[in-house]
Each structure stands twice: as C-alpha cells, then as structure tokens.
Design goal:
With 366 residues, this protein is an alpha/beta fold. 40% of the residues lie in helices and 14% in strands. Strands 1, 2, 3, 4, 5 and 6 form a six-stranded mixed beta sheet that branches. A six-stranded parallel beta sheet has the order 9-8-7-10-11-12, sandwiched between helices.
Length: 366
C-alpha cells in the first residue's frame, strides 16, 4: 500500500484494523481516529473501490471527520469509520455481516458502527446478533431507526443559520436552493425545503430519484454534472464527497454551500478558494451532524425519544453553524478553519480528563 497511515495529515489515527475472512469474502477496514471524548462512532460504508489505497484513503478521511463532527456537536463520542470493500448488491450475505460484526466486537467497544452509504438498518440489526457495539438499529430493537430523516432536519437548520447570517432572516420562502443528490437525506431535505416555500432544483445520478422528488415538490430537474453551476442562492451537495474542487468551484453560481455530503472539499485549501470567491461555506461536519446527534440520544437515560432528539438536532446545529460563521467573520479566517478550531479546542481540553463511557446500552436481540 502506498498510503502512509502515520502521516500527520490523516490526523494521527489511534488504530487501523484490516479485516479479512476468506470463507465469506469479507474485506473491510476499520479506522479509529480518536477515543479522547469517548468510544469512536462512525458508520460502515460498503462500496466498490478501485484499489485498497482508495478504500484506505476514504476510511481515514471519514474517520477523522467523525472525530471533529462529534466534538463540534458537543458529544462524548470519538471518531471512527469502516468500509467494506465490494458491491453490496452482489456480496451482501448474513454470513459476511456476522463475520464483520465479530471484528467490530473484537475491539471491545472502542468502535461503534452504524449505517452509512451501502449499508442498511437491516444490516445493523443482523450485526446486533454478534455485538452490542452498533447504533442506529431499528426501533423494535431499542434503536433510533433510520438516521436520514433526522440528518435532513439538521441540514435544514444549517441552511437557515446560513440564510440568517447572510440575509438577516432564516425565512426560506422564495429562496432558490439546488439539492444535488436526492437519496434518503437529500430527498427528505427537499421536502422540508418545499414546505418552507423555497424554489427548488434537484439532481441525482439516478434519474428516477430526481423525477420522484420533482413530482413530490415541484422542483426543476437538472443533470447531476451541471447541478453545481445552477445560479441559485444556496447549493446543497447531498451525495458523495469532493464535489468542491478545482473544476467546480470556479463554476459555482451561488451565495452559499450547505449540504449533507461528507468531505465536500476535495482538498483543505479549497475552503480558501470558496472564501476568495465570496461564497459562504458551512463545513460539512457541522451541517450534517444530525445523524450522530440522533444516535447519541440512544444512550440517554430512559432510552431514545424521537421528538426530543429531533429538537436537539435542530437547536444544536443552528447554534453551532451560527457560531462557526461568526468566528470566521470575526477572525477573518475560513469557515473550515473556524470549525476545526472549535472542535480542536474541546478535544484538547478533554485530553487531560479521563473518560469512561457506557455507550451503547445493551439492546434486545432479534
């Protein structure tokens, strides 16, 4: 492998576990970035990668982002992530999932997995048969269920905070918002925005998904390759990462970028490029933290309460987005740097305070 896992640019990961089981065909990587604030939490992404290097790069970036996401959200959780290498449509089996779950269990709670791109709540339910170190499982098993609807509520709150910062009001009626990627989170976000009276444009690599959301919300549909260039008030990337890059940033025709996608910046310096272009950027891990805030609610006394969790997500993300935007403006730095400073300050304060966490709670078996 060419990736130097000890390179500081990856954020000094605590542990990286390569998982392989020839009997089931499992090939997976679990990356634990930090347990300073508590056990590392992050979903399991299941997708086809061109190489082991590509899979390793993805999991290292995502796990580091989870540390910052949990810290910025004020949670007593660290950051981790996992990837299963392969095609979930072809390779999914109960045996493979159970094998993967046993690798998760071998980490004794240092890593807690959850749903992500390519995995489902049903997959997480299977995993509970082998380990309690899984979150976001079905409500029937004591979990919080699909995190997508709650994540969309958080992104909506981040959009409202950005609108308030720019235009002095969070009222989205008449604002033109382009949502690129209308999967589970993006489609829910589009419906919320339609309810707010926003003018919508949507795009998705799956044409049927864009058409369905258009029928539900009255949105205009554009080609996914051109979505970033649509003249609009807010561009909301809600698919996979690296959408903000050398090619797309000069073509942006929006006032702000606020979306659900992880790792939206192809490189860290693209935050400065956005700032120079006069485009307000809400860092992805600030705006899309609704899912992890929701999952963290599973461990609260009395168990998960959906209404309480949704209210917490909306209030937390509006406040954290506002704070980051104000820090960036006050200190004349990028919003990405402001978000990192905010998250790092809490991590630094916690390093001198040992933490013992009991998350997750024991859950009933299926």
């Amino acid at each position: 492998m060419d990736v130097d896992v000890f390179d500081e640019s990856w954020g000094a990961h605590e542990q990286i576990v390569m998982c392989q089981d020839k009997a089931t065909g499992l090939k997976a990587i679990i990356a634990i970035h930090s347990t300073v604030l508590g056990p590392s939490l992050g979903g399991t992404r299941w997708k086809t990668y061109d190489s082991t290097n590509e899979a390793l790069t993805d999991v290292l970036r995502l796990s580091r982002a989870m540390t910052y996401k949990s810290s910025a959200a004020g949670l007593n959780l660290g950051g981790g992530k996992a990837v299963i290498v392969g095609d979930p449509a072809k390779d999914r089996s109960e045996e493979l999932l159970r094998s993967y779950a046993r690798f998760v269990h071998s980490l004794s709670g240092r890593y807690i997995t959850a749903e992500d791109v390519g995995t489902t709540m049903a997959d997480m339910d299977f995993i509970t048969d082998e380990t309690p170190y899984v979150a976001g499982i079905s409500e029937a098993l004591g979990g919080s269920g699909d995190p997508s609807p709650v994540t969309s509520i958080g992104v909506l709150s981040a959009i409202k905070a950005a609108a308030t910062h720019i235009w002095g009001t969070g009222d989205l009626a008449g604002r033109h918002i382009c949502v690129s990627g209308v999967g589970k989170v993006g489609s829910a976000l589009a419906r919320h925005l339609a309810d707010e009276g926003a003018r919508l444009t949507v795009a998705d690599i799956v044409a049927e998904s864009a058409a369905r959301v258009s029928a539900e919300t009255g949105a205009e549909v554009v080609d996914v390759e051109k979505a970033h260039a649509v003249p609009c008030d807010i561009f909301s990337p809600c698919a996979l990462g690296a959408i903000l890059n050398d090619t797309t940033i000069p073509e942006l025709s929006c006032t702000a970028v606020v979306g659900a996608a992880n790792n939206q910046l192809a490189r860290p310096d693209h935050a400065e490029a956005l700032k120079s272009a006069g485009i307000l950027y809400v860092p992805d891990y600030i705006g899309n933290a609704g899912g992890v805030i929701n999952i963290a609610s599973e461990a609260e006394p009395g168990g998960y309460n959906a209404e309480r969790a949704r209210q917490r997500v909306a209030e937390n993300i509006f406040a954290s987005t506002t704070d980051v935007l104000q820090i960036a403006e006050r200190e004349s730095i990028t919003t990405a740097e402001a978000a990192d400073r905010r998250a790092e300050a809490r991590l630094e304060a916690a390093r001198s305070t040992p933490r013992i966490r009991t998350f997750p709670q024991e859950k009933p078996k299926r």
